[in-house]
Design a protein that fits this description.
By secondary structure, this protein is of the alpha+beta class. It has one domain (about 5-85): YaeB-like fold (2-Layer Sandwich). The protein is built from three helices and five strands; from the N terminus they run βααββββα. The chain has helices at about 10-15, 20-35, 80-85; strands at about 5, 45, 50-55, 60-65, 70-80. Strands 1-5-4-3-2 form a five-stranded mixed β-sheet. The N and C termini lie far apart (about 35 Å). The model has no long low-confidence stretch (mean pLDDT about 95).
Length: about 90
């Protein structure tokens, strides 16, 4: 059973601001998170509660949280790596 995907308003704005080629890759990664919220390469961030990070190419990161009880993945941010962890 797949997880439901929820995008925060901030994540929607981040996606709207991405270059088209990055947006296409990010879209694929986000859709894949519904199937497997903890893919190979995803990392749980230390000192950030239940926040996970997954790479989109070399430069962008998707920050998200997982609610296994509700089977929901909430996408919080989609940012360049230099800004993602601030």
């Amino acid at each position: 059973m797949d997880y439901a995907l929820v995008l925060t308003a901030r994540a929607e704005k981040d996606l709207a601001d991405l270059p088209r080629e990055v947006l296409m890759r990010a879209d694929g990664v986000i859709i894949a998170l519904a199937q497997s919220p903890r893919p190979h390469g995803a990392k749980k961030l230390r000192d950030a509660g239940e926040v996970w990070s997954v790479r989109v190419g070399r430069e962008y990161r998707i920050l998200y949280s997982i609610d296994d009880t509700a089977r929901q993945v909430t996408i919080a941010r989609v940012r360049h790596r230099r800004d993602a962890y601030r």
